[in-house]
Amino acid sequence: MKITQLLQEDKVTLSLEVFPPKKDTAVEQVSRSVREIAALQPDFMSVTYGAGGGTSAYTMQIAKDIKAEYNVPSMAHLTCVSSTKETVKKQLECMQEAGIENVLALRGDIPADAEFPLPDQFHYAVELVRYIKQIAPEMCIGGACYPEGHPEAVSKAQDIQHIKEKVDAGCEFLTTQMFFNNSIFYNYMYRLREAGVLVPVIAGIMPITRKNQVERSIQLSGSCVPARFKSIVDWFGDDPAKMKQAGIAYATDQIIDLIANGISHIHVYTMNDPEVAAGIMNNLSAILH
Predict the structure, then answer these.
(1) Which tens digit of pLDDT belongs to each residue from 65-85?
(2) Is the pLDDT of residue 60 over 60?
């Protein structure tokens, strides 16, 4: 099923993200986590693309297994950073063979020691979207957006203009970077719509369940952390069990507020933790059905 079909239905959707193993030795552990998360029957699952492209084969395999074994629609990520045009073409062929209909087109994080872009690489996600549309027009293409502005954007206005260019190029829905303050998201939605970006937007939620995740998440996304959440981390951060429960509760509270304010589509960055995914889905069991 194409994700756009899901998003058109008159219901709340909750999707979950998983990532492939970073090393061959972690394959079994990741496979087990993915199985447990898929068994929760989310509306769809997305599978990230390993930094540098080294785990891209796992991305395709995991996305294929999710669809074939659990009958859960899956979406595979593709990035400019780790892909040549030829690589993208091959990956799209693999997706078509596996019956994967959804792809998330991203630029990706540029490795510190890498030369980017090389002559046979795409520089921006909009170029990747155009290429996918050209050689695999039947694919449902998603893209990323940034409620607090892309860290490299000159201004928020310029960032929204780039989002509009992606949508005009063929991006059919957007998933946001993580955010911890819903007011920022609501303001961003207003500005997107005002700029003429009318495709569905899925709100991306990252449950912070470990103290060391906070700094890492801020570093990667540039997200602001509200004082309320800092207090939770200060109070519970040194006790893993308490911090996990508090993090799941905070993310659940965010999601409930979003749904109560008319935001119907939520994407949870699970960090491959079935307990976190199950905790959130259990907290929302009556709301989601």
Answers:
(1) 999 999 999 999 998 877 788
(2) yes
Q: Is residue 17 annotated as part of the catalytic site, yes or no?
A: yes
Residue 59 Cα distances to 27, 30, 47, 56, angstroms: 11, 11, 6, 5
Q: Cα(276)–Cα(289) distance, rounded to whole angstroms?
A: 19
CA distance 224 to 278: 26
How many alpha carbons fall within 13 Å on the CB side of residue 190?
7
Percentages helix, strand, coil for the chain (3-state, rounded to 5) are 50, 15, 35
Q: Would you state the structure tokens that stand for residue 239, as one six-digit string?
A: 């006790």
Catalytic residue among 17, 101, 127, 172: 17
User: Residues near 117 by Cβ (< 8 Å), separated by ≥ 6?
Assistant: 80, 123
Query: What pLDDT band is residue 138 in, cutting at 50, 70 and 90?
Result: very high
Q: What is the pLDDT of residues 237-264, one digit of tens each?
A: 999 999 999 999 999 999 999 999 999 9
User: DSSP code of 53?
Assistant: G
Res. 217: pLDDT tops 90:
no
> Given this model, what pLDDT does residue 112 score?
64
Over 60: is that where the pLDDT of 286 sits?
yes
Residue 196 gets the label, from left (phi > 0), alpha (psi -120 to 50) or beta, of left
Q: Where are the alpha helices (DSSP H) in the chain?
A: 3-8, 27-38, 56-70, 85-98, 125-135, 156-169, 182-194, 211-221, 227-236, 240-260, 274-283, 285-288
